[in-house]
């Protein structure tokens, strides 16, 4: 058998006692690092392919201060196989601050282990595999020392690990990630949107009757418009600080807090007695919800590449628009509870939705992952898969072990012109889109297709059309037939066309169709938009700050949009208001041209690499070649 022994200021690996089934690996010298039992998580499955039916287990270990009576500082590791011993060596190297990179390749009867110390040439250790247990080597016994040749290792570590995965293994890993994220984040975002849009929904519950919310709180339609604007104002104020706490608190804990507290505030809406109370409740609702979307988007950047972001964004926005269906059906059902226990229907809407939201926060706390290399992720990912998930990301992506805060990344984001280009595009698009979404229940009710309470059901077709279109957009985006900015220009032009229809005197059927497709294209716009945006984010802090900053600026459209629909514009069916919305969407198209100019080289490169990945996957492999390079500056 072989044992390794090398004395250096960086690391000492000594001994193997296979009779006892133990190995000792410890770091020596001033740059050494202690290891703890829970840190031994890196189990390279590629080293255990001789037993494909067995799942590798982490070695049992305990911290020791001596071994066979000799002082030592490290771990006593229970061996289940030779690969585990090699992995203890890997773990010790990873714990040493001087180790820059390492990789391990297994062949039929040998392992090639390579590592690089900072400031030194790469080193390679060839290790033969024994076929039997004829020799026992213990600490202090005669050892076979394997030399450390200094020739360069030809493969890049990242390439070696990525290329060790097949297309099926890649799909298996990403299916695991999808199962953990897609449905959950979709439900989170749908619930957020149900709770946000219910202000527009309850406005038309029992409209014209004494138990209508406007009647009970003695509010005019113009005063009620401030309900949504105030919500967005607080959202803007608290979005950035909320997202900057995401890394420090961990996504699971912070998102659970967000959902639980907004559910509590939402339930309190049922107790308001005047417009001032409603305004205060909406302000606190925006405060508590702040950080949900940018937090999810930032977290997804540590699991999905930019060219894959269309998929989780598609699920989020698909479920978001299911909120239109769910919210309308819930409001329709609850409308029959009007007067039950002395509460109006709109109070029941807020109370029941708030209580459900609080319960859902518990689900998020139990299920939502944090980062690929977080301890909780080891429960459903093998260490090899954890390593792969981070290595497959581009250099600019956030990582598990990034610092909780970096002023440098914040400053770089503020100096980047792309930050402001994307913000301008979103503000203008939101100004038009939020205006239509806010006014949609009022417009559809005014068309006279259905009376109370069936008027709520008229909001379902726009939501259904939007969900189907989002699914198609996500599929089309994944194929990389055209770049994301090109797709956005097409969507933006289509949205503009339907908003223009709402500016003219047309029959009620044309108005309803324009409402359906105007809402559809506005929502579909954000599928390629957020995937496009994720490509120019840098680091954990930079990603969290930039997404939150953009979300705050973009929500200005949510503040202004509802105010466009003042009662003085109602005489002509809000044609003037829709004209302003159409102008904003046209301006957004122009802003996207500027943003495209700033990012066109990256986007062409992303399309190229995406096509190479699709081809490699079709051939049964994983693309491990040169990745997209993301400059910090535009």
- Strand/helix succession: EEEEHEEEHHHHHHHHHHHHHHHHHHHH
**Strand residue content:** 5-15%
Strands side by side in the biggest sheet:
1-2-4-3
Q: What is the CATH third-level topology name of the largest domain?
A: Growth Hormone, Chain: A
Determine the CATH superfamily of the largest domain.
Answer: MFS general substrate transporter like domains
Instruction: Kindly provide the name of the CATH class of the largest domain.
Output: Mainly Alpha
Please describe what this structure looks like.
The protein is α+β, with helices and mostly antiparallel strands and 634 residues long. It has 21 helices and seven strands. The strands form two sheets. Strands 1-2-4-3 form a four-stranded antiparallel sheet, with helices on one face. The longest helix is centred in the C-terminal third of the chain and has 44 residues, at 575-618. It starts with 11 loop residues before the first strand and ends in a 16-residue tail after the last helix. Keywords: Membrane, Transmembrane, Transmembrane helix, Transport. It comes from Cladophialophora immunda. Residues 181-603 form the Major facilitator superfamily (MFS) profile domain.
Quick gist of this model?
The protein has 634 residues and is an alpha+beta fold.
Features:
MFS, alpha+beta, Growth Hormone, Chain: A, single chain, four-stranded antiparallel β-sheet, 634 residues, disordered N terminus, three-stranded antiparallel β-sheet, 8% strand
Chain-wise SSE layout:
Layout: E1 12-17, E2 22-26, E3 61-67, E4 70-78, H1 82-95, E5 99-106, E6 110-117, E7 123-128, H2 157-163, H3 167-203, H4 213-216, H5 221-244, H6 246-249, H7 251-268, H8 275-289, H9 292-300, H10 310-334, H11 345-367, H12 383-391, H13 407-415, H14 417-446, H15 460-479, H16 484-501, H17 508-524, H18 526-534, H19 540-554, H20 556-560, H21 575-618
Antiparallel strand pairs: 1-2, 2-4, 3-4, 5-6, 6-7
Helix pairs in contact: 3-10, 3-11, 3-14, 5-8, 5-19, 7-8, 7-9, 7-11, 9-19, 10-15, 10-18, 13-19, 14-17, 14-19, 14-21, 15-17, 16-17, 16-18, 16-21
